[in-house]
Amino acid sequence: MRLRLSSWWRRLRHRRLHQKFKHSLFENLGLKLLALLIALILFVVSRQPMREVLLVGVPIEFRDRPAGLEISGEVAQSVSVRLRGPQDVVRNMTANQIAIIADLSNKEPGERVVQLKTAPATIPENVRVLRIDPASIKLRLEPIAHKEVPVEPKFIGELPPEYEVYSFSAVPASVVIEGPQSHVARITQVSTESIQLEGHLSSFKTTVEVDPPDRFVRVTTPGPINLSIEIGERRSERQFSRLPVKWVDRPPRGRLLTSTVDVCLYGPRSAIEALTASDLKVEISTATLSEATNIITPSVRLPENAHPRIEVKRIVPNQVKVKR
């Protein structure tokens, strides 16, 4: 009897140990397999041959630029980096995986040399940076300047031969630009993006953006620009000769020493061709002038229904003599 009990007890203990071992073996199996995989990868990597690679075109990150200063002029934007590390790691690396830092903190205005360095967090474990080429860069730091400049439309294409652009108006008529001081100083105006004239036979309106004249300069005025373009018949000149001068407030004994002048008008061709010499009135007035003034500038009065774009280009002579 005692023998049977002893045999039963041994079987029970064996069964319990077996279950305990089985439970501990399969408990957290996923984590155990992951740990085993990581260990295997590290072992494989550690056994790989070391290799050097050259990454070309690694971008430079400019950090901690002092407030109120800006980079002026062309400066290197990328470098080459030579790395050494496990073959399977370095051969799969790309230029955008590494950060090359240009630290501008505490830099003063003027020509400066900045040493380049890698951001350690971007370098994989077991990989070493052998060289950065170039190891430093030169750049110029300038104070940031602001300036208000007028907007000038940029026209492309041609109107039909019998038409032309009379004028334009922009709203806003000027914008504020900002950028490095030397770049802002040499800009006197900014152009809009191109505006096509071809096909237009009358005035029109359009909305355009400003085209910055310099990649270092920015336009800070909110856009866009509302542009109105006035188009009309092509203008020409027409000469009217020997037009009589009228002294509108002539005193009893006053006498004109210059009795006729030539007048040149400028305006839409059909409008000035429709005028005759009798439509033009050349006049002088002396009511507001002193008695000693005997040389007066005449004025030309056009018909009330004359085209608003007709203007007096010149009067010859441009002054008439009187005797009072």
Silhouette: elongated
Strands, count: 22
- Mean pLDDT across the residues is 88
- Look at the helices and sheets and give the structural class: alpha+beta
Spans with pLDDT under 50 lasting ≥5 residues?
A: none
Please compute the radius of gyration using only Cα atoms: 44 Å
Q: Helicity range of the residues?
A: 10-25%
Largest sheet: 11 strands, mixed
* Percent of residues in beta strands: over 45%
Distance between the termini: 164 Å
Order of helices and strands: HHEEEHEEEEEEHEEEEEEEEHEEEEE
Quaternary assembly: single chain
The number of distinct helices, counting runs of at least 4 residues, comes to: 5
Q: What does this protein structure show overall?
A:
The protein has 324 residues and is α+β, with helices and mostly antiparallel strands. It contains five helices and 22 strands. Strands 1, 2, 3, 4, 5, 6, 7, 9, 10, 12 and 13 form an eleven-stranded mixed β-sheet that branches. A five-stranded mixed β-sheet has the order 20-18-15-17-21. A three-stranded antiparallel β-sheet has the order 8-14-11, with no helix packed on it. The N and C termini lie far apart (164 Å).
Topology:
Blueprint (H helix, E strand, L loop, with lengths): L1 H25 L2 H18 L3 E14 L5 E4 L5 E9 H4 L9 E4 L6 E9 L9 E6 L2 E21 L6 E9 L2 E7 H5 L4 E7 L7 E5 L1 E2 L6 E2 L5 E9 L1 E13 L7 E2 L3 E9 H5 L7 E4 L10 E2 L2 E3 L9 E6 L3 E4 L1
Parallel strand pairs: 1-4, 7-10, 15-18
Antiparallel strand pairs: 1-3, 2-7, 3-6, 4-5, 5-7, 7-9, 8-14, 9-13, 10-12, 11-14, 15-17, 16-22, 17-21, 18-20, 19-22
